Amino acid sequence: MSTTNAGRGRRRAGNGRGNNRNPAPMPPAPDPTPGAGTPVPRPTRRKGLARLVGPRHERHVLTTAQLPALGLPVGDDGVVIGVDAERNPAVLGLFRPEALEVAFVGGAYVVQIIALRAAAIGARVAIESGRPQLWSAMAQAAGGAQPCVTVHQVGRLGPQGPTAGSPVLVIRDCGARPPRNRLAPAAWQSTLTLLPYLDPAQARQRIGVGAGLVGIQRVSPIEAQAASSVLALPGEDEAALPTLADELTLWSTRKSRKYVMSTPTRAEVDLLGPPRRMD
Predict the structure, then answer these.
(1) Where are the beta strands (DSSP E) in 174-231?
(2) Among 188, 244, 186, which residue's Cα sits nearest to residue 215?
(3) Are 246 and 275 within 8 A, CB to CB?
């Protein structure tokens, strides 16, 4: 006698489970928002169609032997004060990570141009002068509503706090025998001392000791001789200094020298007038 399972082979109804252990997922409820949930059709590619490739060019690669021929027209950074004998821009690198002393023998005109252009590139200019009336109009025109150029009485100039982002140019207009500078040397701060003429007895002290850069306009033969002795200028430069035009300045360092012609802009001429040697 055999026994039979009464439930074997029967389908269970109502719960949907039965023998199908991996039922198909229920379709999601439709989104009531019009257009929402609509699948974006994907672009199809025809079989056998190769992917399009753009035009191929040779790689821009230089060999080691070709590297010396690669040059970039990058010049010095600083204040453009005019042009040299080849009509190239002459640039003074005034602002450095160390202090710089500049001596200038001549009139205030060139120094005022330097002050205006230093302010134009974002530097602060502090002027210590016994002639404030000579600098006030220029200071107002340069700063506008911002006090980027300030004028101080002799001995009243305090620390300026120069930084790499805010360098400072200190201009000392205190006569041919200026008093000792009360400001300590500081990085990103340059001091330009304006001398209306060069005292031969103090030439070494004024343009030799500590001066990293010297500018000389037209001077007398005696002054030219003193400057030539201190700066080790050749004979042709000593002979040329007493005959320089109002626009020319000889700039000299311990390693090089260059004649620079002033090239004021129209706005600078309207404010300061044409180039001149005497104030």
Answers:
(1) 189-195, 213-216
(2) 244
(3) yes
Q: What's the distance, CA 143 to chain centroid?
A: 19
Each residue's pLDDT tens digit, 177-226? 999 898 999 999 999 999 999 999 999 999 998 899 999 999 999 999 99
The 8-class DSSP code of residue 213 comes to E
Contact indicator for 115, 127 with CB cutoff of 8 Å? yes
Query: Residue 214 in contact with residue 102, Cβ under 8 Å?
Result: yes
CB-side neighbour CA atoms (13 Å) of 198 = 31
pLDDT of residue 27 exceeding 90? no
Q: Read off the tokens for 266.
A: 């129209």
Look up the pTM and report it: 0.72
Q: Which residues have CB under 8 Å from 16's CB, separation 6+?
A: 23
Token pair 């700066």 is at which residue? 231
Q: pLDDT tens digits, residue range 11-22?
A: 444 444 445 555
